[in-house]
C-alpha cells in the first residue's frame, strides 16, 4: 500500500531565543493511503501542532515530513499554499463564510482547482451537498443552519474537491452526540468512497470506533502507535 | 487576457457578497464615501468658480489680441497705457479693429437698498462693440445717452427688485457721487470674487464718472484680427512694432494671465486645494474604517480560506474588490448630490458653479485612489489571518 504521510524524526519548537520551547519530540509516523487514523491525547500535548504541520499550515523545522509525496520540511510559504490545495481541512468550528450560501461555501472548495469548469463546479457542489443530506438547503446562509448542519457543510466543502488527504481537528467537539456520530459516519463513508486518507484529532471517545488505527500523543511524544482495538 | 476573464467568470464575487450581505454597513460606507466626494466636489467647484468668474468678463471681450499695461495685475488692477498705441497698432498688417476699453471700480448706491456698494464699470465707445454679448450689442443705442448704464443681471447683492423693474421696461435711477445714473437695460455676466457687479457704460459716461481718468489713458486695448491672419503672428508683429510700455497678449494668454494671478497671488487656490486634500483624507479614513472592520469581522473565514489553499494575494484581491466596489457605488450619490448643492451655491453667491465632465472624472479617479489606498492599509490586517495560530 502506498504511503500518504511519512513523518520521520520530526522536532518542532515554538518561540525564539530563551523562550524557545520544544513541543514535538522525534515524531515518527506513517499513514497508508486510505487509512483512517485517529490521534488522541490531552490538551497541549501537541496534537494540533502536528496536524497543522502535516496540513502545511506551518513550516516544519527539522526532520522529514512527506505528505502525498512532497517534502514539507523547510518548504517555502508558496509551496505550502500549493500543498494545501490537495488537503481537505475540517476544523472544530465550522468556519463557514457567513456572507455565502451553503452552495457558495462549498463551491469555494472547488474554485482553487482551475481545471474544473464553472458549470461542473456548481453540479459537483450540489451533488456533494445532497450527499451530506443538505440538498434542500443550498441557498441557506450559515446563520440559518443548526450546528450539525453547518459542520456537514464544512465537511462537504473539505471533500468536494476529492482531496487525497483529509485532516480534521476535533470536528465533533461542538456537536451533540448524535450529530457528532452522523458527522463522523459521513466522513467515513465519503472517505471510503473517494479513497482518501483521514487523520483525525479528537478527545471524543465515542467516535474512536471509526479508526483503522489510533495513535496517542502525550507531551509532544507519540506514545502508542497501534491498530485499533475495535476496527 | 481570455484566461483572466474566464477566471473572473468562475470566481465567486466574494467582495461583493460580503459587502451586500451587511446592508447597514454598506449604506454607512457609501454615505461616508459620498460625503467625502461631495466635499471634494464643492471645494473643486468653488475653486473653479473663482477662476471662471474672474475671467468671465475677459472671455466675453470680442478680441483676438489684448493690449494692456505692463503694470497690470488683474482685471481690477489694470493700470493704464497710452491710447496712441491703439492707433499705432492699426499700422500692423492683419489688424482689423483696435478698441479702447476703460475699466474702473466705483462706489454706487444700490438702487434698491440705497446702501453703498462697489461695482465695476466697463466703458467703451458704443460704435465699436467691445463684447461678444448680443444682449449688450442690441442696447448700444441706449448707452449713447449720457449717464445711462446697462446693469448686470447676475450681480451679487440685493438687486432683485431693481432688476425686475428694468425687466418690465421701466428705468431705474441711482446715484454715484452727485450724478444720477439711469439703468436702461440689462445683460448677463455674473459676479466675480473681485467685483460684485458689472456696469456697461459709454466711454463718455465713463470719463464723466471718473473725472481723473482721461480718454488718452485706456485700460485695455481690444484688437480684432482680419480673417486669414494668425492672431499669434499678428501679436508677435505688434510686439515688435509697439514700444515697451505696452504688453501684447493673445486672448488665450490674457485669460491665463488673469487666472494665474488668482492662482498665485490670492490664497484662494491654496485654500480650496487644501480643502480638497482634507476631504480626500477624510475619505481615506472612512473607507479604512469600513474595510478594516470588515477584514476583522471575517478574519476567521479568511484564515480558513488560507488553510484551504487560497493564497494571500487572493485575499488581497477580495479587499481591493471591496474597495473598488465602494468607490464606484459611493461615487454615484457623491456625484448627484453636488448637482443640487451647486445650484444652491450658485443661487446664493451668483458664482458660476456647475458640474463639468472633467471634474466628475477627476473626482472619480480620486475616489478610486482613495479607496485603493484605504484598502492597501486595511490589508495589513490580513497578515494576522494565520490559520496556524487560529486553530
Automatic annotation (TrEMBL), chain A:
> What InterPro entries does this protein map onto?
AAA+_ATPase (IPR003593), ABC_heterocyst_DevA (IPR014324), ABC_transporter-like_ATP-bd (IPR003439), ABC_transporter-like_CS (IPR017871), ABC_transpr_LolD-like (IPR015854), MacB-like_ATP-bd (IPR017911), P-loop_NTPase (IPR027417)
Any single GO molecular-function term of the entry would be:
ATP binding
A Pfam family for this UniProt protein?
ABC_tran
Superkingdom of source: Bacteria
> What keywords tag this UniProt record?
ATP-binding, Nucleotide-binding, Transport
Q: Report whether Chloroplast shows up as a keyword of the record.
A: no
> Can the keyword Transport be found in this entry's annotation?
yes
Cite the SMART domains for this sequence: AAA
Cross-referenced SUPFAM superfamilies, in alphabetical order? Answer: P-loop containing nucleoside triphosphate hydrolases
Q: Which residues form the ABC transporter domain?
A: 5-230
Write the protein's name: DevA family ABC transporter ATP-binding protein
From TrEMBL, chain B:
Query: What's the protein's topology in the membrane?
Result: Multi-pass membrane protein
Q: Does the keyword Cell membrane apply?
A: yes
Q: Which domain of life is it from?
A: Bacteria
Q: Where in the cell is it found?
A: Cell membrane
Question: Which residues does UniProt assign to the signal peptide?
Answer: none
Please list the residue ranges annotated as the ABC3 transporter permease C-terminal domain.
276-383
Instruction: Name the UniProt key words of this record, in alphabetical order.
Output: Cell membrane, Membrane, Transmembrane, Transmembrane helix, Transport
Q: Which Pfam families match?
A: FtsX, MacB_PCD
Q: Using the record's annotation, list all stretches that form the MacB-like periplasmic core domain.
A: 28-240
Protein's recorded name: FtsX-like permease family protein
Q: Which organism is it from?
A: Gloeocapsopsis crepidinum LEGE 06123
Amino acid at each position: 500500500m502506498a504511503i500518504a504521510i511519512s513523518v520521520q524524526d520530526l522536532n518542532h519548537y515554538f518561540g525564539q531565543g530563551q523562550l524557545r520551547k520544544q513541543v514535538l519530540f522525534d515524531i515518527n509516523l506513517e499513514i497508508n493511503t486510505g487509512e483512517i487514523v485517529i490521534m488522541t491525547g490531552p490538551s497541549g500535548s501537541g496534537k494540533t501542532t502536528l496536524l497543522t504541520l502535516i496540513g502545511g499550515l506551518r513550516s516544519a523545522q527539522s526532520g522529514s515530513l512527506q505528505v502525498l509525496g512532497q517534502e514539507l520540511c523547510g518548504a517555502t510559504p508558496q509551496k505550502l499554499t500549493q500543498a494545501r490545495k490537495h488537503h481537505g481541512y475540517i476544523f472544530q468550528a465550522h468556519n463557514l463564510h457567513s456572507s455565502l450560501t451553503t452552495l457558495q461555501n462549498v463551491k469555494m472548495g472547488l474554485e482553487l482547482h482551475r481545471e474544473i469548469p464553472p458549470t461542473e463546479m456548481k453540479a459537483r457542489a450540489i451533488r456533494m451537498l445532497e450527499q451530506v443530506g443538505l440538498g434542500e438547503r443550498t441557498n441557506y446562509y450559515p446563520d440559518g443552519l443548526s450546528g450539525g448542519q453547518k459542520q456537514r457543510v464544512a465537511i462537504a466543502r473539505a471533500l468536494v474537491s476529492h482531496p487525497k488527504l483529509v485532516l480534521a481537528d476535533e470536528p465533533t467537539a461542538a456537536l451533540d452526540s448524535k450529530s457528532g456520530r452522523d458527522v463522523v459516519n459521513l466522513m467515513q463513508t465519503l472517505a471510503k468512497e473517494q479513497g482518501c486518507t483521514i487523520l483525525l484529532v479528537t478527545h471524543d471517545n465515542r467516535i474512536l470506533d471509526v479508526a483503522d488505527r489510533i495513535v496517542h500523543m502525550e507531551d509532544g511524544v507519540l506514545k502508542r502507535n497501534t491498530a485499533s482495538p475495535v476496527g | 487576457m481570455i484566461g483572466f476573464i474566464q477566471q473572473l467568470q468562475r470566481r465567486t464575487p466574494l467582495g461583493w457578497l460580503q459587502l451586500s450581505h451587511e446592508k447597514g454597513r454598506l449604506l454607512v460606507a457609501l454615505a461616508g464615501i459620498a460625503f467625502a466626494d461631495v466635499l471634494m466636489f464643492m471645494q473643486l467647484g468653488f475653486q473653479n468658480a473663482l477662476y471662471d468668474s474672474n475671467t468671465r468678463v475677459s472671455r466675453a471681450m470680442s478680441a483676438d489680441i489684448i493690449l494692456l499695461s505692463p503694470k497690470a495685475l488683474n482685471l481690477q488692477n489694470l493700470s493704464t497705457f497710452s491710447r496712441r498705441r491703439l492707433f499705432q497698432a492699426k499700422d500692423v498688417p492683419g489688424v482689423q479693429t483696435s478698441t479702447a476699453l476703460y475699466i474702473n471700480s466705483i462706489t454706487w448706491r444700490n438702487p434698491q437698498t440705497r446702501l453703498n456698494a462697489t461695482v465695476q464699470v466697463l466703458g467703451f465707445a458704443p460704435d465699436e462693440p467691445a463684447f461678444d454679448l448680443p444682449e449688450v450689442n442690441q442696447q448700444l443705442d441706449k448707452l449713447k445717452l449720457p449717464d445711462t448704464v446697462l446693469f448686470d443681471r447676475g450681480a451679487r447683492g440685493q438687486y432683485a427688485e431693481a432688476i425686475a423693474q428694468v425687466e418690465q421696461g421701466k428705468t431705474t435711477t441711482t446715484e454715484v457721487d452727485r450724478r444720477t445714473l439711469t439703468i436702461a437695460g440689462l445683460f448677463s455676466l455674473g459676479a466675480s470674487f473681485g467685483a460684485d457687479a458689472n456696469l456697461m457704460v459709454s466711454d463718455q459716461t465713463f470719463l464723466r464718472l471718473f473725472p481723473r481718468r482721461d480718454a488718452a489713458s485706456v485700460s485695455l486695448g481690444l484688437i480684432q484680427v482680419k480673417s486669414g491672419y494668425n492672431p499669434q503672428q499678428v501679436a508677435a508683429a505688434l510686439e515688435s512694432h509697439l514700444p515697451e510700455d505696452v504688453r501684447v497678449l493673445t486672448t488665450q494668454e490674457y485669460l491665463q494671465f488673469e487666472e494665474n494671478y488668482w492662482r498665485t497671488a490670492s490664497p484662494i487656490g491654496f485654500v480650496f486645494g487644501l480643502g480638497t486634500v482634507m476631504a480626500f483624507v477624510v475619505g481615506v479614513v472612512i473607507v479604512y474604517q469600513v474595510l478594516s472592520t470588515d477584514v476583522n469581522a471575517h478574519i476567521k473565514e479568511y484564515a480558513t480560506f488560507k488553510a484551504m489553499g487560497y493564497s494571500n494575494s487572493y485575499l488581497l484581491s477580495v479587499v481591493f474588490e471591496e474597495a473598488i466596489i465602494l468607490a464606484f457605488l459611493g461615487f454615484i450619490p457623491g456625484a448627484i448630490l453636488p448637482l443640487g448643492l451647486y445650484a444652491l451655491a450658485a443661487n446664493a453667491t451668483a458664482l458660476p458653479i456647475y458640474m463639468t465632465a472633467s471634474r466628475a472624472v477627476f473626482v472619480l479617479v480620486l475616489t478610486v485612489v482613495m479607496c485603493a489606498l484605504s484598502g492597501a492599509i486595511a490589508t495589513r490586517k490580513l497578515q494576522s489571518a494565520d490559520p496556524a495560530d487560529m486553530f
